[in-house]
């Protein structure tokens, strides 16, 4: 039996691609046994079991780049996570380890390298984080979503695969009616889909609220708005208090959207953060998109991700600190230009890589038995 560890997580941008890779592996090798290793208290501890896979959690947390007392606990959490990761790897005896990014990925891949277990990194962003750059010398393959990554990684290890996306996003054309019913939306009205990432975005929420309450546009539109669990109650109260300015019957506020395939199927325009997986999903969905990159990520990689689309005339971008003031005008201008919307749709669709999960799974399975493994260290 083939045994595989998939490590990482933290946000939906790591978790759902990891599950997509696992599903692709099982489709290729049905007797494979897969163990996920994630971070305790993070999204993966809920979503991975729901997808039918086993998961173990480490106490690892990120190192804050600004001064904070939380950093005092970091060495102890890292040491504890390394000890537990070693125990998990020795007990499970994987044939290959896949790192998808996130807090748990580093300790597990380091342990795998020390035991000479074949390992693979899946780098989602156009500008990789420091952990993956450090781990690059210890793994055998690095699957990337963007060309030109030899600037950061050894060229001979690179495989251009694209980013894995959820299988249900590949068949959107015939789902529109189901999507309208799922979200209680009106037929025949332009639908603006708002997604600020799995945790929500304060900037996007404020921008959308201002856009709705200003009523500067002349279009008959409705909003399907994923605001995030932490923002939901605040946004609900804000909308209700502005009921004299807002047609709340046209605003469908959601804390979290599980059926993103249905959400994309009904969208005419998408407003989104620029996480790597979000962009990969948007390419598959083929919708005009206004990207508002988060400034609160390492190396400002969301801006770099967004510019990969903007550079190919496949999306629009607003800076985070300009979004509240400019989103309404940007949206109105876009909705006024049908030819521009069609151009953006064509160009973003041309960047889609629908079989990325299968490519990554094939690379991982191909690494098995390429090195002698020692579990006695």
Outline of the structure:
It contains 14 helices and 13 strands. It is an alpha/beta fold and 377 residues long.
- Element pattern in H and E: EHEHEHEHEHEEHEHEHEHEHEHEHHH
- The CATH topology assignment of the largest domain is Rossmann fold
Distance between the termini: 23 Å
Number of strands: 13
Average pLDDT confidence is 89
Q: How would you characterize this protein structure?
A:
The protein is of the alpha/beta class and 377 residues long. It has two domains: 3-164 and 355-367, 3-Layer(aba) Sandwich (Rossmann fold), CATH 3.40.50; 168-349, Rossmann fold, CATH 3.40.50. 41% of the residues lie in helices and 15% in strands. The protein has 14 helices and 13 strands. Strands 3-2-1-4-5-6-7 form a seven-stranded parallel β-sheet, sandwiched between helices. Helix 3 (74-92) packs across helix 4 and helix 7 (202-214) packs across helix 12. The longest helix is centred in the N-terminal third of the chain and has 19 residues, at 74-92. The protein is elongated. The relative contact order is 0.14. The mean pLDDT is 89.
């Amino acid at each position: 039996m083939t045994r595989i560890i998939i490590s990482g997580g933290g946000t939906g941008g790591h978790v759902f691609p990891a599950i997509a890779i696992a599903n692709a592996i099982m489709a290729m090798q049905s007797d494979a046994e897969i163990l996920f290793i994630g971070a305790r208290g993070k999204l993966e501890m809920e979503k991975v079991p729901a997808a039918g896979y086993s998961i173990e959690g480490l106490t690892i947390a990120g190192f804050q780049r600004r001064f904070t007392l939380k950093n005092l606990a970091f060495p102890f959490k890292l040491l504890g996570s390394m000890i537990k990761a070693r125990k998990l790897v020795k007990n499970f005896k994987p044939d290959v380890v896949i790192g998808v990014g996130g807090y748990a990925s580093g300790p597990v891949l380091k342990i795998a390298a020390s035991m000479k277990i074949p390992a693979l990194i899946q780098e989602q962003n156009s500008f990789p984080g420091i952990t993956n750059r450090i781990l690059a010398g210890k793994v055998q393959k690095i699957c990337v979503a963007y060309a030109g990554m030899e600037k950061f990684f050894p060229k001979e290890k690179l495989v251009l695969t694209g980013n894995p996306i959820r299988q249900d996003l590949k068949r959107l054309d015939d789902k529109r009616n189901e999507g309208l019913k799922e979200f209680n939306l009106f037929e025949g009205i332009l639908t603006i889909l708002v997604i600020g990432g799995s945790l929500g975005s304060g900037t996007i929420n404020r921008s959308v609220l201002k856009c709705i309450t200003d009523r500067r546009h002349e279009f008959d539109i409705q909003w399907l708005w994923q605001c995030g669990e932490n923002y939901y109650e605040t946004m609900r109260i804000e909308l209700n208090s502005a009921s004299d300015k807002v047609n709340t019957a046209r605003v469908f506020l959601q804390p979290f959207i599980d059926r993103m395939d249905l959400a994309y199927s009904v969208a005419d325009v998408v407003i989104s953060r620029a996480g790597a997986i979000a962009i990969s999903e948007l390419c598959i969905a083929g919708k005009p998109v206004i990207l508002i990159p988060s400034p609160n990520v390492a190396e400002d990689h969301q801006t770099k991700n967004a510019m990969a689309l903007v550079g190919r005339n496949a999306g629009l971008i607003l800076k985070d600190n300009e979004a509240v003031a400019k989103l309404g005008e940007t949206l109105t201008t876009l909705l006024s230009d049908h030819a521009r919307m069609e151009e953006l749709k064509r160009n973003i669709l041309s960047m889609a890589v629908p079989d990325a999960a299968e490519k990554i799974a094939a690379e991982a399975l191909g690494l098995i038995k390429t090195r002698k493994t020692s579990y006695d260290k």
